[in-house]
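Step 1: inspect the first sequence and its tokens.
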Amino acid sequence: LERLPERLAFTVVHGPTGSGKSRLLGALADAGAQVLDLEALAAHRGSVLGGLPGQPQPSQKMFESLVLKELLFLKREKPVLVEAESKKIGELQVPEALMQRMRASPCVALDTPLEARVDLLLEEYRHFLEDRGALEAQLACLVALHGKERIGEWKALARRGDWRAFVGKLLTEHY
């Protein structure tokens, strides 16, 4: 994990939450591109609402083992596409050598209109529409960052089932 990232040529896909980075990488992988999907390995989408329902995150050691296994199978002569990530994906730390290599790699930025981002998030986070208790628990984690009043507004939109407005507010006020 300390040496392999330096031997690979990464291209990092950036974009705001809901811009379709994961979908783009999935489509590119299906078309034969080399993709390192850290979020899939971490069983987390990387945001405060990113936990996957019914799928716990692996241990840190298991995550690192999964990353190492993927890195070992990547070809040095082909570029590796990877989504921009912070140091942590959920509760897991991305290996430092990989983070450094990603930060030094060329980037591609996705510029997705807000309405399309809302549509994508409504599809990808559909489980929260069905489990409002889980959504409210996750939103409670943001009170220190945004205050009770703003989180209360978001929760009110969710309680009313005004999902487009809720996701739009979340994207423009948090992400």
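Step 2: inspect the second sequence and its tokens, then contrast the two.
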Amino acid sequence: GADAAVQVLDADFNVLAINRMAQREYERLWNRTLNPGDNLLRLFEDRPDIRDAMRRPWSRALSGEAFVEVQIVGRDTDDPPAFEFRFSPLRSSDGAVIGAYVLAYDVTERLRDQARLLQA
């Protein structure tokens, strides 16, 4: 029931958890199915551009950095959406980074509204 697409990966880019909203976005934007146990990078072996674009932010989070970025994704579609990604490292009880997670929010309409305000 979250209003965010949620994914959790281990240090090897294996999916530990993913909510239905995130799964729908993978299907909609890239016609790919991503489930727990899948490897995110292997999912896009045939698309190194997408694979590398995904590896960059996840690697930052897996190195221990928490950050927010806005990106347009799914440029292969007619009307690519924009998402705000909130990446965070996932830590063990002793503080070691054991994975990372992201909360992704569709901000397409917000950015369009801001652009319309600037034009006005």
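Step 3: confirm your contrast with the notes below.
The chain is about 35% helix and 30% strand. The mean pLDDT is 91.
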